[in-house]
Every structure is written in C-alpha cells, then in structure tokens.
Amino acid sequence: MSPPARTSPPGQPPARRPSGDPERASENGGRVPGLDAAPAFTLTRPPRLRLPVLIAVPHAGRAYPEGVTARMRQPALAQLRLEDRHADRLGVAVARETGAGLLVAHAPRALLDLNRAEDDLDWDMIEGGRPEGAGLPEPGQRGNARARSGLGLVPRRLPGSGEIWRGRLAPAELAARIEHIHRAYHAMLAAELARIRDEWGAALLVDLHSMPPLRAAEGEAHAPVLVLGDRFGASCHTALMGRALSHLDLRGVPAAQNRPYSGGYVLDRHGAPQSGVHAVQIEVCRATYLDRQLSEPGAGLPAVAAMLAALVRELGAEAALLGGQEGLRQAAE
User: CA-CA distance, 95 to 21, in Å (whole number)?
Assistant: First the structure.
C-alpha cells in the first residue's frame, strides 16, 4: 500500500520522494510555529532498510513564516548564509540509492539551530532576558562562546554582515520553537536510531551538512571537498572513520577529518558507540554541487550525490560489521 500523499510546508519547495520505491513510508513531525502547523521535519524509510544508516539533514529547511522574514534585516543574504542550501537534495538522492533512512528538517536554521544545545542561548536577544518559570532552558556553559559570537541556538548575527534581526524575540515564541522543533526533532532522531540498532545490532547516523569552499592547507595541492567529523573519536567507532577515509583516498576525493569541522550537538547527543549508536558528520563543499552563486543546484549535484552514496554504502557495511551477527545477517539478505 502506498503511503499517504505528502504536501510541502508553505515556503518549502515541493517535497521530493526519497526513493523510486513507491512503498517508502513518510512520517511528519513537530511543527513550525507561525506557519499554520506545517511540519518541522519529515522521516522517510523503505519497507526494509538495506543498511543500518539514518541520514539526517538539519540545516536545509526553507519553511519561513512571513513574520520571521519580515523581522530579518537582509532576508535573502541571511537565508543564503545560514542554510545548507539544497543539502536536502543530496540527502534524498543518497537515501534513494542506498536504501537508508532519511530525516530532513523543514524548519530553517534561522528559527532554531538543531545542531546547538537548548542552553546555547544569547539571552540579550530575548525580550526581558531569561524569564523564570517559562519552560525555557537554564543558562549553561556548553556553547556560550558560540552564542556570544552570534551562532547559538537562535542565530543572532553573521560574521561580516552584522545583526540578523530587527527587535528581540518574545519568550513565548522561543519556547514554542524549542518545544515543537528542537525537542520533537531530537526525540524522533533518537527513537529511529534506537529502532535501527535494535534491528541490526548497530546504527549509524550520517549528519549531512554543507560548507563554504575551503582553502588548501600548506603543502596540500587541493582543498578538502569533504570534511568528516567524529568529535575527535568520541561519536563513532574508529573503524568507521578509517574505512571512510581510505575509501575516499583510493578514489582521489580530497577529504579532511575533524578540521575545521568536528561535529556539534547532534553528534554529542546521539553518538554513543559504546551502546551501538555511531554518528558521523559529513560537510560537503557547496561549490561542488551548487551554481557559482552557491544558491541553486549546479551541474555537479548528481556526481556529488553518487560519490556520497558510495561513501554511505562503505560506512553502512562497516556499521553492519559492528552490529555483529545480526547486522551481518541483515546485510546478507
């Protein structure tokens, strides 16, 4: 039986089914405050995973409420620089080719950054500072430096561009974003990873992002087009990163490990290799799959998607090995 038809949230491009398989199921979750209860994210999976892998795309959302864009000083610039523009297209293509699960956020990073902790807040941008008894997080130490730099849970400013917003954010609006975007997304992510681990003996989260073009390091002929992050070994088994880097090296794909991006809150929260849940962040150079303005899909997108699909197959095969007999049995079927 085919899944119910999906419609895209207002402000979001038409939904693309992440598989040629008509049986691929989808499940919406959360909501975008101020956008007629549009879902904050969508999880899709085939009837049976071919790999113990869940691909997540947290920063490509484009479902902007009108009230939010009206408060932006430079909406087009802020959106372009905050979004992992069209990284969801890569995620869709990779999930289709590999048979992995896929979790795509529709809520944009401008509303709330899913790769930040709840306490990673700059309270100076909230009306009245931090209110008592409002269900909001206690001040924490996790990401104070990022919040002060302007890229906390709710981005405040962009380097070289200044303040993003006109005025301050109401506490009730912040609380709604945390509840219906952040907590809902991470609850679904954790539940799906647990389901995959229980079925396969291990689960791998591939947290997919895009990055501005990097410069080649001294002594290197090419700048990395991929940066793989594992929180310096804390978020996944070393065999996964070793297999990934060897695979890329054999194919001549310039890649780096943990520098300048080692992963963030998503990997800290969900990567638990001692419990059979592994997490890797992949940053893809935007110049490889977007146009010259780094705004729209470019001619290189299919090739980059194919390269990522091959990498995910390698990672998924290693994750199945880490799952032991159950994972190997599943992979062989």
Answer: 11
